[in-house]
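Entry 14. Structure prediction run on the chain below.
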Amino acid sequence: MSDFDAIDSLLDAVGPQTQLPPCQVRRELRERARLSKAQVARALGVSPSTLSGWESGRDPAGEVRAKYAYLLDGLNAKLATDTVNRAEPAEQPMASGAAAEDVTSTSSPEVGQDEDEVELLAVSEPCVLCGCPAAQRVAGFAQHLDPADCQTTPVETPKPAPNAPSAQAQEPRTARPPRPAGGKGAAPRGRAFQEPSGPGDLIYEAVHAALAERGGDVEAASAALLKRAIPDAMRLLDETRKGARYDVIAHPWIPDILKKSTSKGADRIWEARPKWTRPELPPGKHDVTVLDINGAYLSALKTHLPLGQLEHSTGFAHDRRRAGVHLITPPAWEHDAVLPNPIGRRDEPGPLWVTEPTLRLLLRLSGPKHRLCEPPEIHESYTSGATENLLEKFRIALKDARDTSIADGDELTLEYVKAMYSKFVSTMGESNYNRELYRPDWMHIIRSQAFANLWMKALKAHDAGLTVVRAMGTDELHVIGDWRRVFPEGRSVTEVKVKDTYTAGTGTEAGTGQEQ
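Output returned:
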């Protein structure tokens, strides 16, 4: 192919983009068709969170854009036809059983169901979800198409007609028990297809598949699992979000303060990362223990996260039902000799943008219980309605897998789980490694929550009579004293483990005088 042929091919590929309806219309069409995000996302080959972005203002590109437009056009036409048909007078029902049976077999399924998946039954069968009689079978399973028709108490279905072909079919049939979800209990009502296992089983399935594909080579399987940690974490998140009460915007409008000034620069949010060393130690030599806080980022997933697009406000009041980022003037800190500053080490005075966990920590420390500082002065905020439990099921699935792998001595699964939650946090901002979620506000908030958690452990140690020597990052706390009476020892996320020990104090090196 000549250079001009290549250019001609490139020009042929360039054309006007397929038109899409406004984002609110896209969502309305899907909901009117009674299609879930998971159904549409699966058909388009994307994740439900990506589809949420398309219904919130972000547009797809390339081949998937054409597929999405084709789907929306089809839904619009189908819904319009259905509206016209319902407006016409209904035909009189046939009286004879044969005629009625013929009508049943040729009726079209309800909107939102594929014609080749729905089978209308002449004789009702137990619903796979609730056990009550259902007149349809979808993908081989009898079930109610309308969730409102499902009942909590299974009932016995009627006997088949006397002319049934087999003697076995003439016996009374009891309701089939509901299919289990997550291996425990009954499947939620109104959801037609439930996985036979819980979300956490996705982790073990991925590990076993990686080992099987590489003939049991643990090192090769580990490398493969670490490479896929981000998409696997997003898949797990989507699984744990099924049936959730909150609708999340995955790609909202972002204010300029959350955007990087340059490609390698930073935005304007201050995460309050601890980097503190006690100025002076008590006289004498001391044995210092370096405590490692287990699963710092995993625990920080339980934090107040904004659900939707951030909205601007001004004023000094803090609404605990909302979360986001805030421009504050931090209070003076007069306890640096024994405890780190809650906003971290900062050289420049004046207002700064902090996250929700940092603001809540300052408000807590200024309250009647502690009275360690004055309340911060809030100038303006970008917030949205929030919940502390947005990622809770996701966190619990990862925590359970982490605990099980530690108990079993399964280091492969343990490293895979660590990579999932650490990379999930680090790539949910402006990253080329995770296109399904663009929430730099979440990234900053989760990180700041990890820092706030470490700070509260330093306060707990101080209040219990331990000497706090150093606090670093998310998971490192240096203390002098009997720390085991304050913190439980172990590898669980509610426990701490010893990372190192050293001697410090009079007669050693400068500063804290550490002797390794």
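The two ends are 67 Å apart (CA to CA).
Filed with the rest of this week's runs.
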